[in-house]
Amino acid sequence: MQQASAADMLAAREKFFSGHAMPEGLVPAPILRSWQRCAEQGLDAASVIRAEPMTSAELRALHEQNEALRLLSRSELVSLRAEARLTDSVVILTDAKGLVLDTAGSPEFAGRAAQVALRPGVAWSETSTGTNAIGTALAERRAIEVHGGEHFFEPHGILHCAASPIFDPFGKLAGVLDMSGHASAEHTHAMGLVRLAVEQIEHRFFARDFAEMTVVRFHRTADLLGTAREGILVFDGTRLVAGNRRALHLVGLDRKALRQTSSAEIFENAGLTIDSGELRARNGERYFAAVSQPQTMPSRTPGTLPRIAKTKHNEPFLTPETRTELAKAIRLINAEIPLLIAGPTGAGKEVFARHLHAQTVRAGKPFVAINCAALPESLIESELFGYAPGAFSGARKEGAKGLVQQAEGGILFLDEIGDMPLLLQSRLLRVLQDKEVSPLGSGKPQKADFVPVCATNRDLNAMVAAGTFRADLYFRIAQYGITLPALAELPDRQAVVTTLWAQLAADRDPLPEAFTSQLAAYEWPGNFRELASCLRAVAALHEPGEPITLASLPQRVAASPAPIALDGDLTSLNQAAMRRAVEMHKGNLSAAARALNIDRSTLYRRLVWKEQGTR
Predict the structure, then answer these.
(1) Most buried residue, 9, 134, 281, 331, by most Cβ within 10 Å?
(2) In CATH terms, is domain 487-558 a member of 1.10.8.60?
(3) Burial of residue 564 (number of CB atoms within 10 Å: 0-12, 13-18, 19+)
(4) Is the full-model pTM beyond 0.85?
(5) Angle between helices 589-596 and 600-613 (to 10 degrees)
(6) 432-462: per-residue pLDDT in tens?
(7) Interhelix angle for 133-140 vs 29-40, to 10°?
(8) Which CATH architecture does the domain made up of 320-483 adopt?
(9) What is the rounded distance in angstroms from the CA atom of residue 121 to the CA atom of residue 53?
(10) 535, 537, 507: which is closest to 197 by C-alpha?
């Protein structure tokens, strides 16, 4: 249902709050149900909301109780932060009760949002703050948008909110992810971005705690196994105990079926059969599958799916220069020499590192990634080096392996290494020098075999000079450096768009030429990450076979200057077109030349020659 006009919303509110008639058809049914729940609780829509903030101690306790969810969600908060800033919005993570845990995004809007209690420690359940995307998503157990006057309380009419509940593998509510901004602004892709982020968070839940169970992963496309788009079913013996939304939808079940259904019932009812490592449906559809058997089982039993060794990750877009650097990097990693990858935010440093890992002698071993900027200082040390049983309050009884040990035999990828605190830099340096790890609470060092690959968007040389990064650590990790270019620096952005779309939406038709041209004309300040987020949102908003038009683009991309159409004849390229291209790209000759499909040197010569010839 489309958003109601301001006049329709005013009429709907007058009807509902006057009690004369139900405004059915004027507002979406979930909104109307929420209004009714709020009215039944005795909430007054015109009252002033006074949200009592938590004390710092209470907020710390809340964070500790939800630390697993916060860790699993932190990458999405970081990746959505840039999108939120571009749309003057904030991204909000709450617990299962609607208590705000973390926020990220536009500092300007965050300040105004705080005036309506949109800040950590405040409850946004329906019982506390009426109809709103967070509380109503919890009540309805579904993703929902709440726009302007659809909020129950009048002060919240300034907001547009899109939220989706987060479910753990066992079907239990874990929290909510929300993106909120001005109701007066356009938020075309907010819901799509939130859904995709929640899908990533829910997928990460399955990376732990299932070593003693059978995990079945499947997708129509082999390359998408191991990504958030795969279906996942988890069996304890023959009993289904966990599963994600995609898998449950495919087999025609909901979360209520968890712990109530056997594998035999699922495969029979869904018409799935096992054949040579594939799942086949009665209608002829095939699904590539990978199965992790319980570690305690020496071999698989007859009739179960075979293991599939590994899945492919998205490949980076490589220029001839970066292909040369990749070949060097492979030899360096094979020789156990650390590597530093530099480049602007969103340039694809982790994607490059994963692609590199897959081509080295360590390809069959783990690739463990950690974002040093996304972890609070209090957790970085335990995450990296692990801890002994009872090392601190809230620790697991059996202790935990750190990421360094989890990368045994493989690659440890340290992203945003420039944001690592100085004290921890000295510990990391000792680990790199001694190849030994001492978990927290344990004085016994343990041998570690891994190759570090670090990444940064900062000038580490300048940081060393300023004393904010250890020189000895810098020389240890930067024995060889690779710099990845910004997306705007690439000569053929249209090819980048086409390649990324094929990776991210393998089950969709190619994008129309006008669509890719418009995407290629945009400068993409967020680089590959921003472009990938845009393409994911487009895929989420269109079913396979549904036409994709320029109206599907975010406003900032659609509003960028369209590429200049040429007939390929350089003689037809007049002075006005060249001047217009240079002005359009704010004096950037390289960008103007790319838009004109000519060499920068050619553009420069023609402009200079023309100026000299007219003197």
Answers:
(1) 134
(2) yes
(3) middle
(4) no
(5) 100
(6) 888 888 777 766 788 889 999 999 999 999 9
(7) 100
(8) 3-Layer(aba) Sandwich (3.40)
(9) 6
(10) 537
